[in-house]
Write a structure and sequence with these properties.
Elements lengths: L4 H19 L9 H10 L3 E2 H8 L3 H13 L3 E6 L2 E9 L1 H21 L5 H19 L8
Antiparallel strand pairs: 1-3, 2-3
Length: 145
């Protein structure tokens, strides 16, 4: 396919997202929930603002997604050390199970997408995408991270 980079990036993201949502359909997870579960699996007890920054979501959107996750019993939100201004988000046992399911699905989709890539190509792709990400996060880029 001979297409501009922006198209390839957007199309690959959409295809990855579509594959993920199809693979996790039976879980009842909604868009936004898998990436939050993935983040919390390694950052349990994060504040909502950290989640919003990492997941590139608006704080109000994160609040709404977390409310849905809380109602499904995937997370609990708690105040710690008397700090009533910040809510810390923790995975429940059920949330950890869902996070593991999501992690395995992410790995399977990545493996499908990287089929036929050599280890060197995988490493190079990761390095290039990391560099692109860093450039987009710099002042003057389009991301407020």
């Amino acid at each position: 396919m001979n297409a501009p980079l922006h198209y390839l990036l957007m199309a690959n993201h959409q295809l990855f997202q579509k594959a993920l949502l199809a693979d996790i359909k039976e879980t009842g997870l909604t868009p936004g929930q898998p990436k939050i579960l993935d983040y919390l699996s390694t950052h349990d007890g994060a504040v909502q603002k950290e989640i919003a920054v990492f997941c590139h979501m608006e704080p109000a959107t994160v609040t709404s997604v977390l409310l849905g996750m809380e109602s499904k019993g995937l997370i609990v939100r708690k105040n710690l050390n008397g700090n009533r201004r910040s809510l810390y988000v923790f995975l429940t046992d059920t949330g950890r199970q869902f996070a593991e399911t999501v992690r395995l699905r992410f790995e399977a989709i990545e493996a499908r997408g990287l089929n036929g890539f050599s280890p060197a190509e995988k490493e190079q792709l990761s390095a290039l995408l990391s560099k692109l990400y860093a450039n987009m996060c710099e002042p003057g880029g389009s991301l407020d991270v």
